[in-house]
Amino acid sequence: MSSLLAAAAGSLAPASRGFLSPTGVEIVFVLVGLAVLGSALISVTTRQLVHAALWLVVALGGLAVEFLLLTAEFVAWVQVLIYLGSVVVLVLFGLMLTKAPIGRSPDADSGNRWVALGVALATAGTLVTLVVDAFRTSWIDLGAGGGSTAVTGASLFRYWVLPFEALSVLLLAALVGAIVISRTGKGGAKPRAGRLRTARPPAAQRPGRATAAPEQQER
Amino acid sequence: MLDTLLRCLAALVVMLTFPLIIGQTEHKVMAHMQGRLGPMYAGGFHGWAQLVADGVKFAQKEDIVPAGADRRVFQLAPAVALLPYLLVLLAVPVGPHGFVGQAIDAGIFFVLAVMGIGVLGSLMAGWASANKFSLLGGLRTAAQLMSYELPMLLAGASVAMAAGTLSLPGIMDAFHWWWIPWQAIGAFVFFTAGLAELQRPPFDMPVADSEIIFGAYTEYTGLRFALFLLSEYAGILVLCALTAVLFLGGWHGPLPDSLGWLWTLLKTFALAFVVIWARVTFPRLREDQLMRFAWTVLIPLALLQLALTGIIKVAISQ
Question: Is the pTM for the entire model greater than 0.80?
Answer without folding.
Answer: no
